[in-house]
Amino acid sequence: MPQIEIENLSKTFKVPEREAGLAAALRSVFRRKYKEVAAVDRVNFAVEQAEIVGFLGPNGAGKTTTLKMLSGLLHPTAGVARVMGHTPWKREAAYLRRISMLMGQRSQMQWDLPAIDSFFVHAAVYGIPKDDYKTTLDELVELLDIGGILKKQVRTLSLGERMKCEICVSLLHRPAVLFLDEPTIGVDITMQARIRKFIGEYNRKHGATIILTSHYMADVTALCKRIIVIDHGHILFDGQLGELSGRLAPFKVIKIDLDRELDGYDFASIGEVLLKEARKVEVRVPRDRAPAVAEKLLSDLPVQDLTIEDPPIENVIAMAFGGKAGAPPSAAEPAAEAARA
Amino acid sequence: MRQLARSFTAFLKTGIGVMLQYRGEIVLWSVWGLVNPLVLYAVFKAGAQSNPDQQIAGLSIGEVAAYFFTIMIIGHLSAAWDTHEMGWYVRTGRMSPLLLRPIMPIWKSLADNLSYKVCTLVFVGPMWIFFALLIRPTFDTAAWQVALGLVATLLAIVLSYTFNYAVALIAFWATKLDAVGEIYFGLVMFLGGRFAPLPAMPGKIRWIAEALPFQYMAYFPTWIFMGKVHTRSEVFLGLAAQLAWIAVSILVLRLMWAAAVKRYTAVSG
Questions:
Q1: Labelling A133: which of A43, A126, B55, B96 has CA 20 to 30 A away?
Q2: Distance from CA of B82 to the nearest CA of A (A)
Q3: Which structural domain range is residue B233 located in?
């Protein structure tokens, strides 16, 4: 049975809207215009226990709104969600004790106090037995390497240090379900890698179910086998990371290194030429024709090396969001752009 | 319940910790709490001195001193300011981390409120003594009035806090609550007898003040401590009114809270 199930989950916001300038501001005093924005529109998915799912989409796609509904912060406009058998927005204490939502841009620490004080409050609020608290804290402090900053006032910590403390406080009660919204935002590459490794270890060790949003593809590729791509509140893709290119970009890129320079070979007849240098050529071909084209190239040309690659995942996703949201997998144009990118 | 007590104690400890980070602010708030009653005492004293019987609204100069001295202390103990802060919490999304916890945010707010009072007592205590020596209040109070005055003070603290929090929840609908906070503060000060004792108010305003709960947030216990509520039945009637207003506040607060979390939009994070 899935640990997270959502059916037709929708959230519409009513937002005030007006033109720029003082005159429009004055008009809005008497006649305010509102616009209905469907942040999440009939979204369905299920997540099994211990799964890590990457939840991807551009800004305003509906990722954070979905996570906020799943964590009980927002009531949906329509739809159903069950997480570990609970309806999140009923906000039962028993549910809130078993989840954690880490918002990279929103601190849950006491700003004016040392980090250790926030941990102490968290332990009390979540009813963590004192011995368990000590054991878990010691473990997290070691894994996150934050022993040296526990007594520092939170507002004096660097962003990376604070993020590690935020992760620590989010995991002190050992949540079974974790909603991570941009957990590595603003931190340097080394720290991103450490946080990623830590999240992966937490998942393996405790069997925690994790939904992760991130704008850093490295987070997603390192942690998630499965991804859900959302844009304008609609799910564009839900499947294994490896299937993403096949579904959203039905092309492959064949890269060839030649033994020697060639003149006169008509690469354009086999596909779209993306790169042509003296001894290096890249050709985009339809996915189903890639093996046959590769075979022909190997037989026709003095090939030193040949690889068949999917377009980079970042580009596939970027192209999928490039105004082609909802396009069926066969839609050639975004895929072609992705392959070219 | 044990869980709630543990959480509340932790909130209280960290609340005091936060207060102690800003020692200067504690002193300034303490001084601010002294200025208002001192000025009003001076005004009423001048009014009494200008009358042939040296009284104002039936109070002698010593009783005027007792009134402003007592209401200063009870006003400090029953102060609540969620109407000034809730809008910011909702508007900026700072409410979100509090809503993710398995405990209602009101408990943290209440602990912060008490932390402020515990910390400021260190400074306001000596100031109150100084104030008393300066103005020499006159009390005519029986022991039973002191005892019931303490009960009324406790109920005044609860009423002031719950009523203020219920009003503060308007922030979930209005988003920006600064003006509401100021109006509420004005009503507490004026209709709650902080600017003038109720007998000094003009007829209709006094009638309004007596019909509303604000008088029970400081004025009523002050009046008991002054020995001006003469019979036990009058006191018990007032205590019953306090309890009734507390019940109404808690009911409204709970209903509003249930509706508020449904419409929370968790903006800015």
A1: B96
A2: 18
A3: 2-263
CA distance A210 to A48: 10
The answer, for B266 touching chain A at a CB cutoff of 8 Å, is yes
Q: Check CB contact of A71 with chain B, cutoff 8 Å.
A: yes
Would you mind telling me the total number of residues written for chain A in this entry? 341
Per DSSP, the residues of A13-28 read EEEEE--SSHHHHHHH
Cβ contact, residue pair B93, A106, below 8 Å: yes
Phi, psi (degrees; rounded to nearest 5) at A244: -60, -45
**Secondary element (H or E) of residue A1:** none
ipTM: 0.85
Per-residue DSSP letter, A209: E
Distances (CA, A) of A306 to A246, A257, A286: 20, 6, 17
Quote the CA–CA distance of A234 and A220 in Å, as a whole number. Answer: 20
User: Does some domain include residue B44?
Assistant: yes
C-beta atoms of B17 and A75 within 8 A: no
pLDDT of residue A337: 45
Q: Pairing relation of β-strands A209-213 and A177-181?
A: parallel
| Cβ–Cβ contact B36 with A under 8 A | no
Q: Which of A95, A112, A124 sits opposite B7 (nearest CB)?
A: A124
Cβ atoms of A282 and A293 closer than 8 Å: no
Residues paired with A114 in a beta bridge: A153
Q: Does A108 touch chain B (CB under 8 A)?
A: yes
Inside any domain, residue B142: yes
Least CB–CB distance from A108: residue in B9, B13, B97? B97
Strand order in the sheet with A78-83: A33-47, A4-17, A78-83
Contacts of B267 (CB under 8 A, 6+ apart): B91, B92, B93
pLDDT of amino acid A137: 92
Is residue B86 a part of any domain in this protein? Answer: yes
Cα atoms in the 13 Å half-sphere on the side-chain side of A285 = 24
Radius of gyration of chain A from Cα atoms? 24
- Count CB neighbours of A199 within 10 A: 24
Asked whether the CA dihedral A120, A126, A127, A130 is positive or negative, the reply is negative
A151 touches chain B (CB under 8 A): no
- When divided into structural domains, chain B yields a total of 1
Going from the first residue of chain A to its last (341 residues), give the mean pLDDT of each consecutive group of 10, the final group possibly shorter.
93 82 80 85 94 88 92 94 95 94 81 90 93 91 87 88 89 93 81 86 92 84 89 88 75 88 84 87 88 90 88 70 44 40 41
Alpha carbon distance B44, B31 (integer Å): 20
Looking at the domain assignment, is residue B269 inside a domain? Answer: no
Most B-contacting residue of A70, A116, A121 (CB-CB within 10 A), to test interface: A121
